[in-house]
Every structure is written in structure tokens, then in C-alpha cells.
Design brief:
Radius of gyration: 17 Å
CATH superfamily: HUPs
Protein name: Probable nicotinate-nucleotide adenylyltransferase
Order of helices and strands: EEEHEHEHHEHEEHH
Pfam families: CTP_transf_like (PF01467)
Keywords: ATP-binding, NAD, Nucleotide-binding, Nucleotidyltransferase, Pyridine nucleotide biosynthesis, Transferase
Oligomer: single chain
Largest sheet: 6 strands, parallel
Helix content: 25-40%
CATH class: Alpha Beta
Bound molecules: adenosine-5'-triphosphate, nicotinate mononucleotide
EC number: 2.7.7.18
Distance between the termini: 55 Å
Organism: Ligilactobacillus agilis DSM 20509
Structural class: alpha/beta
């Protein structure tokens, strides 16, 4: 059983639980971290396919605050990315949002996030979902050797990227979707259609907010 949990925030980054003793059935929760600038059909298909193929209870899309790698993407306000993620998962009770990285602020190291979430939700078994293009960068992730022992990584095959890694990944085959956030930004900037590449709600939001126009 889950006895009383008291946690105190030690630093803004990491909370420390004084007591974790959960022995009940665990919920299988996928975490799909990303910048979601903007979220697109590729994200939704991968979330749904992993959910189904690994029989997860839910998948949470988790917008990062500042992505850790040096390649800083042209960014928009976190509030706008969050709003578009909300619009994307609307209507699917098995998809949700984890906004912990936005609340924490700063650089979104997955190690800090996973450590915190596991302490906060001992009733969950987490799966960290990444695209096949991310796999080759895993060795550069902050405290990756510890992180891979803390959470099961799930890699989704992505066209043009190797399916090998020195880390214990679960690979899930997903129909190849050649959509990326950069492609969406580029199409909007060129005045091209993004219909069916993002949800209708996201397309309307991009239009209403005037995002990605040159
Ligand atoms: N079409 C896709 N197929 C498989 N994985 C994807 C796809 N698009 C994104 N991903 C994965 O989803 C996660 C979040 O991606 P992110 O929000 O950075 O979107 P992106 O489309 O890769 O963005 P950008 O084009 O700006 O680099 C990453 O692990 C990424 O590899
Ligand atoms: O912790 C790290 O060192 C690390 C390095 C690169 C990426 N990540 C996480 O991987 C997820 C996808 O990243 P991105 O850049 O494709 O949006 C997102 O949740 C990032 O926080 C994490």
C-alpha cells in the first residue's frame, strides 16, 4: 500500500520524498517529451501506437521548457506550445499532458524530470518515448547511464535512422510519418497547407496567433 508521502522541495529542480512505499498495482504511463513547436500528426501517431502496442494505460505529452541540446530551435512562448499540445490530445482520454518541465523552468534535463516524477507518482511505471532520430544522441544526455536504469526507454523507428543502441531500448514499429515540426513551420512560412499534418484545432490556433509566418 502507499503510505503517507511527504515531500519537500529541496531545490526548484528536484523534490525529495521522505517516504515511498508503494506496493499496489502500477499504472503504465508513457512520457513523450518534446518541444512540440508545433505538435503534429507524427507525435500523435507515435503516442497512440506505443500506447496500443505496449498496452499502456496512458501516454502523456510532456513539453520541455528549454531543450537540453545546443541546437536551439527557433522557439515560441511555452504557453503557446502548451496550448497546442492541449488542442492535439483533446478528445482522446488515453492521451494527456505532463507540464512538470514548464512549471519547473530552466533547462529540461530528463534525468531531473524522471527522478522527480518517480518520487511524486510511485504508483506509475513510466516509459520514456523517443523518436529513432534521438537514439544516436542518447550518449550525450545528462546522466544517461543512471537515467536508463531509472526508466524504460522506448524508441520509435524513424525513416533513415539506425535501429541500434548500446542502451536497453524497447523498439516499436510505427508507420513512417514524414512530418516534423520544422516541416510545419516551413510550410506555414511559405503559405502552404498544413491540413491533415496537424489537428484542425492546432491549424486554427497557428492561424489565429499568426505563428511561424515570415
Ligand atoms: N514523424 C516522427 N516520427 C517519429 N518520431 C518523431 C516524429 N516527429 C517527432 N518525433 C519524435 O518526437 C519527439 C519530440 O519531437 P519534437 O517535439 O522535437 O518534434 P520534431 O518534429 O522532431 O521537431 P523539429 O522538426 O523542430 O526538430 C522526439 O523524440 C522526436 O524524435
Ligand atoms: O536530458 C537530456 O540531456 C536530454 C537531451 C536531449 C533531449 N532530451 C529530451 O528528449 C525529448 C525530445 O527532445 P527534443 O529536443 O526533440 O524536443 C525532450 O523531452 C527533451 O527534454 C533530454
Amino acid at each position: 500500500m502507499f503510505s503517507v508521502t511527504v515531500y519537500t522541495v529541496k531545490t526548484p529542480q528536484v523534490a525529495v520524498l521522505s517516504q515511498v512505499d508503494y506496493q499496489g498495482p502500477k499504472k503504465k504511463v508513457g512520457l513523450l517529451g518534446g518541444t512540440f513547436n508545433p505538435p503534429h500528426l507524427g507525435h500523435l501517431v507515435m503516442a497512440d501506437q506505443v500506447l496500443d502496442q505496449l498496452d499502456l494505460d496512458e501516454v502523456l505529452l510532456m513539453p520541455d521548457n528549454l531543450p537540453p541540446h545546443v541546437d536551439t530551435k527557433e522557439t515560441i512562448a511555452a504557453k503557446q506550445r502548451l496550448e497546442m499540445v492541449k488542442l492535439s490530445v483533446e478528445g482522446n482520454p488515453k492521451l494527456g499532458i505532463e507540464d512538470i518541465e514548464l512549471k519547473r523552468g530552466g533547462v529540461s534535463y530528463s534525468y531531473d524530470t524522471v527522478k522527480y516524477l518517480k518520487q511524486l507518482h510511485p504508483e506509475n511505471d513510466y516509459y520514456f518515448i523517443i523518436g529513432g532520430d534521438m537514439v544516436e544522441y542518447l550518449p550525450k544526455w545528462y546522466r544517461i547511464d543512471e537515467l536508463v536504469k531509472m526508466i524504460q526507454f522506448v524508441a520509435v523507428s524513424r525513416e533513415g535512422f539506425k535501429r541500434t543502441s548500446k542502451y536497453p531500448l524497447l523498439w516499436v514499429d510505427v508507420p513512417t510519418i514524414g512530418v516534423s515540426s520544422s516541416l510545419i513551420r516551413q510550410k506555414v512560412a511559405q503559405g502552404c497547407s498544413i491540413k491533415y499534418l496537424v489537428t484542425d484545432g492546432v491549424a486554427q490556433y497557428i492561424d489565429k496567433e499568426g505563428l511561424y509566418r515570415e
